[in-house]
Specification:
The structure is a single chain. By secondary structure, the chain is mainly alpha-helical. Helices cover 47% and strands 6% of the residues. The chain is built from 8 helices and 4 strands. The strands form 2 sheets. Strands 1-4 form a two-stranded antiparallel sheet.
Amino acid sequence: MGLDWNPANKAKPGYEEEFNKITKKLLGRVWWGRKQLKKRFSEISISAFETLKTPQVGYDQSATEWAKEKYRESALDVTEDEFLSRLMGYYVLELSPPSDGIPDYSNSALGYVDAYSFRAQFLKKCEDIIGKNLLNKAFEYQQPAELVNYGDQLIESANRYSATHGLEIPKQAPDEIDTPLFHLHIVASAGRWCKFWGSRGHMLEPYF
């Protein structure tokens, strides 16, 4: 499956202490009462969807219209109201405002992560740009401030490599993969992703 990065939920204002306690329990593989812990965690935290201001079906007109269009395209033997009821609260990421928090490189098409995740497995082919230490750190949980610093280091590495090799970091993903320009774009995109989420208070949650 490889390595994917997810922005973990962050605490709602005033719930930081309780949030941290529950997070430690969940990360510590506490199984007794886990369902209740996860429910409370959801109640006192802010998700990546919320930070991205992602429209929700049933709450935002754009998302509801998106769901109605999906219904018209489907061949399901249910009414429109039933279809919308099933999708109530669904976040439509493709309607979120563009940002560095929704990267070009994501495994969301496979369905096990969302489009805001970053396919950090690609960094394994960029070790000549970022070095072994930064690559190893890609597999670690990182607090928001650490994540911003990590993003800065990735961008600095890309800038240093581009200057040394006389290359310009592409503004868009190159068509040809596994080239120095492609790898530079990956590293710079990873750095911006880290800074986007870290500066908004989200922790890095590696998934592999």
